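RETRY 2/3 - previous attempt timed out on the joint model. Re-submitting the same 996-residue input unchanged.
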Amino acid sequence: MRQVISRADQINEAELLILKRRLRLASVLLLFFASILVIRLWYLQILNGDEYFKLSENNRTRLHWLNAPRGMISDRQGRPLIANRPYFNVTLAREDAPNPEDLLNRLATILGVDVNELLDRIREGEDYPRYVPILLKEDIDWKTLVAIENHLYDLPGIRIDVLPSREYLYENLGSHLFGYLGRINEKELSESEGGYQRNDQLGKLGLERIYEKQLRGEPGRRYIEVDAQGFEQHEVSVQQPLPGSDLRLTIDRDLQDVAEDALDKGAGAAVVMEVATGRILALASSPPLELNKFVGGISTQNWNEMQKNELKPLTNKATQGQYPPGSTFKMVVALAGLSEGVINNDTPFFCNGAMAFKGRDYHCWKKHGHGTVSLERALAESCDVFFYSVGMKVGVEKLAQYAKSLGLGAPSGILLENEKGGVVPNVEWKKRRFGQPWHEGETMSVSIGQGYDLATPLQICQMTSTLVNGGTRYRPQLIEAVMDADGKVAKGFEPIVDGHALGTAKSLALIRAGMVAAVNSPHGTASIVKSKKYLVGAKTGTAQVVKVEQYKHLKEKDIPYKYRDHAWFTCFAPADKPEIAITVLVEHGLHGATGAGPVARKLLKEYFKDSPDAKEEVLIEDE
Amino acid sequence: MLHFDRRLLRHFDWALVVTLLTVVGISLMNLYSASHVGYFGTPPYIKQIYYYLVGCGIMLAIISADYRFLLRVNYLIYGVIIVLLIAAMLFGKTTMGAQRWINFGFIKLQPSELAKLAMVITLASYYCRKDTGKGFGLLDLIPPAGLLLLPVLLIAKQPDLGTALMLVFVFVSMTLFAKVRIWTLILLIMLVLPLAPLGWKHLKPYQRQRIETLFAPENDPLGAGYHIMQSKIAVGSGQTFGKGYLAGTQVHLDFLPERHTDFAFSVLAEEWGFAGAIFFLAWYFFLVFLGLNVAGAARDKFGVFLAFGVTSLLFWQAFVNLAMVLGLLPVVGMPLPLFSYGGSSLLTNLAGIGILLSVRMRRFSRGGRENKG
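RETRY 2/3 succeeded.
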């Protein structure tokens, strides 16, 4: 310490004294500035106090916030999906009501309720200061509204609050995309910008939250002078609200409707994507959120119910559900095998129903085997042994590279919350995740999309699009346009390219042919979507949930629901000039073709309903 | 780190602490009135109590160390603040169009608040190393002006004009206190005056409007003049003895959007009238006066400058806020130190009080000469 002080210690006593003398001048200045304030206070409070008091008493300006109409949400053709409906609430500002009892009696007659009901409301609000308005009745109808408006001059202190609220034109359609609105909480309020008030609604989830700023617009302000009796004297000024922008989605209402309808009974997801742009035409997750339960704030009971439901309605299974991709992963193996030169289109493998590796049998789903198969038939009939062999030759590292180039293993970047990225395993991943070395046998499992592989339905749909559009990976997008209040497009759709598939164009063509064969060849696994009207390419898949021996001997319908396999189906059409890719996942749907296939078939039918030869029947009738 | 010295307690400035507690008491009572309804969760007056407790901890920490330590690390402090200000600019959180906060996860920091204290410490260190007897000339002023300008520009860019001006005020006060040659002063004034219109041009439109409306608030009753007019009505309508505690009409009608922060004094003046406002101001300016007293009692040059700097910081913040609330200055977003709601400002000012107490407590140890006698 002493060294530090030493320098400051070399003080000149005289200099210190001079400095301290200057402090006296500072004290005088302090007094001077303080007296300015005192004089000003005297001027305001004593000299002009009366006048200001009158101003505060008799000429009070009231500020009413005017909520901007929230933007509407429509489908790609501009058909509205979510609109607004105003709620009219009756409130009482007590300090503007000199004679409340008399007032309430008159109001009760107009509202057609017992006056005690209103008195109860007032008792509840008694602890609040008098300037806080008390809500007397919510959501009155038009007739009552008109009656009150007509009598407003006999009802000092009574006010009608208009609370805009969402109206869902198609019930729960697109619920996981839109999300919902809720009352702003304190944290959101303190972080908000742009004049949010307490009790305001804001988007809490989904597009309502993500596009909150655009949808909300800007609130307006209305200043009114009221007299001592609480009657509105005149409007001082109005700043009109700026209505929110409308959102036009890439979603097609009809396709979305068909998707949700087809998934209705169980849990699952369906995604329809435009292969050459990344536009999402439908993105459904079942069960849906019950949006109307969220209007005006969801109750704890409802929320708990949703959380406990074993079908998990709160999860958007298209983007947040991760499942082993099963045989849909075989396209990745084929692409890697072809492009790496491990196989060509007629390299044969022999399938006798199983493949032995290190003393263990890895089975094909077909017990007695496929015999000699090459690529096209292997894809069409989903021969496991073929893909075990190709996968082992390519190796897990290469498989992972090709998978990632198709968008697996990382979130696609769609604008929705908490999108999951799935898993594309390799040696390093396993070491990082489990601290264990890679076993070669695991490459076998990975080659048929089991084991550590995980993917979301959206990823499989994006993968299918990339495979069939020539290898360009488009980011899935939901917004066709943001339209400002006067209907002009503020921001239009633009495709975003996120990458390119590894591998040659020829390999991609061969895989497409294999998928077409899966639908159209005699033993193809995906014949359920076969149609004369349009050529489809597809791949089925089964995601093992558990490998439980005790269920092996059971008939499928006797296996408990939660242990049943997940069903995958992914397809594209028209095969000669692909427009859309459709991916369906049905949780515990057992088999790709029968569990998820029908959903895909309905979507295809809907998509091609207006094409020229519409009268031709789909080959296989709906069950 | 130090053995406890009883003389530290003997020289403890009890008057300063009692005055501080009185101001704090009035502040909390007033905050309760301004914010006890209409908030979700923890209301501001409760949060403010927490901030006070944290502030007291910081104060104790500062008191327990010798203030002369600051002289050793002054440029380190300065450097850290500059880094924080730049960080706020790059990664800061934007609220109401200004980048002021850095979020460290566990704490949200407003570096521009800390910059005020850092400026005081930097200038006190600088001037204490110079000869302050004969007055500074123009060239002597270039280095301290440089030290000022860097943080001022960074803060003005956020934009936080109020804080930037505060740094300038403190600089001017401390520099004049260190004495400037009279001709240098005249020259400087003549140089700065023609720059004023240039500065006017660089203000943002809303800032310009605030100054314009100060002179004619009636021209714009809904925009920038609105706060001033409503605040004046609140204060004026308090008259001699006020409308009574919790009974202010003006402050409770959402006329004063910042009623628990910048306009906290309007609430007091409306509810307690001229009598209450004068009572409060008397205590408040007595606190500032005690700060000058500490400077007068300091044992060394650094102590004098440090205490004077902290006091002038306190004073200018208070004066600008009060003058704004009373409609004498434009609205600049300046809380009333130790009185308005707000954690960053409170902690900074309590730290300042801690520095004052520390200077006062150690007056006896001058060169070790006094203690022998």
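Chain A touches chain B through 58 residues (CB under 8 Å). Closing ticket.
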